[in-house]
Design brief:
The protein is mainly α. It contains two helices and two strands, in the order ααββ. Helix content is about 45%, strand content about 5%. Strands 1-2 form a two-stranded antiparallel sheet.
Length: about 120
């Protein structure tokens, strides 16, 4: 019969278990980071598409482009300002005026630096 003081794990057994856990973490961590980066790209593309659609609807309804993103929210074309997951901000968008010289916002882009997973620049979306 084994006494209660003799039960437990040896130091070697604990080290082997920790080594296995460390190995599994080393395999999973890069995939987690890549998945997180991909999801940020997807959210950014979606937010840009939704905001551009709201700008187009505003232009079709009002006959002019919105003066700001806040106007889209105030007139209920958007529920809230679009979120840029790369900059973690709702205010750091690159706003583009219409090519004809009208006032307002014709388009927007992310002002995040760097390249997306597909090799394109975030500023070109």
């Amino acid at each position: 019969m084994v006494s209660p003081m003799q039960r437990g794990f040896t130091l070697i057994e604990l080290m082997v278990a920790l080594a296995i856990v460390a190995l599994l973490l080393a395999l999973v961590a890069p995939r987690y980071g890549a998945g997180l980066r991909h999801s940020e790209d997807v959210v950014l593309r979606h937010n840009l598409a939704q905001t551009r659609e709201a700008i187009d609807k505003f232009h079709a309804d009002q006959g002019r482009y919105p003066a700001s993103l806040d106007e889209l929210v105030a007139r209920r074309y958007l529920r809230e300002l679009p979120y840029d997951p790369l900059l973690r901000s709702r205010r750091h968008w690159q706003l583009l005026a219409p090519p004809q010289g009208e006032g307002g916002i014709h388009d927007l882009r992310s002002s995040a630096p760097g390249l997306a997973g597909d090799g394109s620049r975030y500023a070109s979306w």
